[in-house]
Amino acid sequence: MTTRNLFERPELFENQTRFILSADAKPKRLTRSSSALGRSYSRERFDSNASGSDTQDVDDDFENRISEDNIDEIYTERKPIDRNEEINYDTDIEADVEPPRDHSCRAIYIEQCRRHGIVPSTHFLRSIDNDNVTIRYCGLKPINIKVMVAPLKINSTITKLDLRDNCLGSRGTIYITNLIKENSYIDELNLGNNDIGIHGCKILCKVLCTNRSIRILHLDGNRFNDECAQFFAEVFLQNECINYLNLNKNFFENDATGRLFGQSLIENQSLQELHLAWNRLSSKACGLLLKQLGANARLTTIDLSWNAAALFTAKALNDLLKKNAIIERIYLEHNKFDTECATYIGKGLAKNETLKILSLNGNPLESSGCYAVLKPLLKHPTCGLQSISLIGIIVNRDFLDLVTELSGVLPQLDIKIGREREQEFE
Q1: Contacts of 416-425 spanning 24+ positions with Cβ under 8 A
Q2: Could you read off the pLDDT of 154-183 as tens digits, one per residue?
Q3: Is the entire prediction scored with pTM above 0.85?
Q4: Which residues pair with 329 in a beta bridge?
Q5: pLDDT by residue (tens digit) across 268-303?
């Protein structure tokens, strides 16, 4: 009997169908072991060309195979999933997890250098965590300042920043202004000899008007001229924190600058030291500045050395010494004071009791002028002068006798005379 006779005998077909349906109804996954699969595979291959056996024999053979093999080997029991068991999934989320980022000043500086293609400064890296960051004479470009500003903005240890003699220019100054707006820990800033110019001055002074942290500021040697005077006048009027301002070696010269500085300093209640040496201030400009300081209640030191101060300035100084009881140190070295000027200075000293230091080095006073400065002090034993410097002026025997006599009246007074020594001017 051939296999197609199976369809001619419906009762066998029904038996076969019932067996298949019963297998599908079991809640078990049909998996076979390797041994069972091997045996079943060899037994289930039928040669289509061979003569078919009796259909009943086929059914018996199939049933025998089921009975021979253990049903557990054919059907494997489905194991329940343990919800509490930890399942490790290999997902893309684990691959995307980034390591913790370093937010230190050093790491931020190196990252900024990498972004802008700048070689990191080893000197800056060594001092980045110190309270005093000093980088002088390195020829820093504006881009170097830009990458330094980012880490310094979050630096809470720095109190002094010295970038003197680097030629930053106005562009580099813009980056510095961004820094001092963000960092409130810097109280001393040195930007001397950096060629800031009028454009940089305008931006810097605008920030300084609202700054409340900087106490000491060095801006000498930056080509500030009379057009910059109005910007600094605004700083004098609005800033309440700057105690020391160095504007030496700039290009201030006309009378309006002296008047503007003097008027703005009347309202200033914080500035204690103002340095305007090595400018081009005329005698009238210096005089207008000093005349206004009579109403100032905070300034203790004024430096007008190496300008063009002469008779007009000497008369204003006379008035200042009579009215002001705050100022303690006045530097008027290498100006144009002569014997007539010395007379007014001496009269002012005779009425003052608070001035401690007066420096007149290098002026054309001659011996008679020096004599005119000291002579009134013989009748002023309550004078508070501690030092008068007359170095670089030729004196005679009469003056030396006066010095000896004055030492008995004012023993604390130190009178300096002789050859002028080489001095360092920042």
Answers
A1: 416/387, 416/388, 416/389, 416/390, 416/391, 417/370, 417/390, 417/391, 417/393, 418/391, 419/391, 419/392, 420/361, 420/362, 420/391, 420/392, 421/391, 425/248, 425/249, 425/277, 425/278
A2: 999 999 999 999 989 999 999 999 999 999
A3: no
A4: 301, 357
A5: 999 999 999 999 999 999 999 999 998 898 999 999
